[in-house]
């Protein structure tokens, strides 16, 4: 897999997590622990994307 393809894959996962976070937060009794964990995963994805983008220049 090329770096560009990996960045696209990670970007898709990042957007999916954003959607899942939004859905959970709009529920009447949102699970704050689950939201926090999803936000942490989303941040790790963003950091990996940024790192890969820096490599491609």
From TrEMBL:
Pfam families: DUF465. InterPro entries: DUF465, DUF465_sf. It comes from the Bacteria. Gene3D superfamilies: 6.10.280.50. This is DUF465 domain-containing protein. It comes from Brevundimonas vitisensis.
